[in-house]
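Researcher: Please translate sequence to structure tokens.
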Amino acid sequence: MIAWLAEQRRVYFSNAGVMRDFRSQLRGKRAPLFWSLYLLILTLLILFQYSTLGTGSSRSVAEIQANLYQLFTVFVTLLEVLVCLAAPVMVVAQIVGEYQRRSIELVLSAPVSTKHFLVGKMISGFRYVAILLILALPCAAVTVTMGGATWQEVLEIGLLLTLRSMVFMAIAVPIAVMSKSTVKAVMTSLGLIILYTALSYAVFGALVLSTMSMFGGPEYSPASGLMPFQTSSAIGGSFPIFGFDVPSWVWSILANLLIVKAFLLGGQAAMSRVGAGEIKMLRIGGLLFTGLMSWGLIRLLVPAVTTVTSSPGFGGPSYGGATAVEIQQYVSAAFFVALVPVFCSISYLSSWNMRAEEKHYPDGLFSMRRMLSGHPSGGLPYLVCCWIAAVAGVEFGIFQAGALSTFEIWIRFGYVLGVLVFLYSLGRLSSALTKADISSARKLHFGAIMMVTLLPLPVILIMDASSSYSSGQSSFAWNIYLFSSPFMEDIIVALGQATVLTVLGAAIIYISERIRSRKTLDSTSPIGEQA
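Model: Translation complete:
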């Protein structure tokens, strides 16, 4: 225990690279110029918003107070946007700089862990972001003086923005490690931040709406502190745990730090060799997160549309005021959302390359023994285990709700499994057809996913529009589109799509393995070695 505490102190409080990186950030004229522009934007915003308060012939005190609070909300949103733009750039510049200067070998050859290296980069970047937040205090004081907010709200906003900046920086860490290009890493990180924002609005926004009746309003939901650019609506609330009202910022600290930990593990796994403890921890954490996420969504979302009764299952004509089909679609939505991180990482689980390092070298198709080690052969069993973890979470949540799942719900589960297998097969085929590095295989895989999912959509939309215009009903085109919503009412169509996707995925995997076997044989033959 003492050794572990000493290691944490060395990583977080005595990190040798933090001061060096922080000094390099402040060297030159770029930092003062950026800070001046940053303060100018905030000042102009405050002046512009303040000038609009006096317009109008007659306004009541309530209207003026509402406008002052709107001024505070706009100021916080702009501040969060600026932090969102600055935070990933700071981390990317420091990590990619080590690779471009070719000093990463010297850093990693020292007796330090990858965690020590990445945490140091995050702390040095966070210091820069902390300066931005401190520089914004005078503008925040103006809003407090005018009555738009209180100092307690300003402090809570500062805490939430600090957590948000840490999440944004953590998202950039694995991207910077894998891309090793500043422009590419920055653009990819910003794209992932946009994706993270969209997913958080879809998931946590639904939780906010579903818990309004439980916690008294959206600002009192524990999920409101996880939605970017909605920071001003997440302050001042609390939620009950075992009869005690816990402030929302406590939940925000715990949840955001878990998200930061997950992305840091992703960066450590990308820098580690095959079989490293970081890779195992990341994959075990992914399984636990998938199960807990699916269970939590069921527990929070199902009570939002129905009153739990003693019905034996979801197969009857109605269930507590909602139809059986509506409940099935709601359960399917929770199941699908819980697997979104697995969908996002499927390229990394399915790709392989003979010219890459050992953890990317093709070693077979399915190996449960190597599921947690990072080998390509462990990708497919890991996908299946994530699916099983999501099913277990949903089933446990349904059981706690006092009901049982039906055959229709399991068909919807099977559809998602078919999608996973099909997308995984595209990654195996992309790797088999690629002669370049592992990055090219992943790009080809991403392009293949976009082609099979987005390319048919214009045709489907045209067919649907023409059919609706002539008959007033939706066309059959959506039924033949293999990636139509898994929450459709017609369960027979979902069963057919699940079967087609699974068969196609198995066929593509078989073809990919034939190509891989031929490539492996050619590379190990004497003629291949001479070539």
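Researcher: Any highlights?
Model: The two ends are 55 Å apart (CA to CA).
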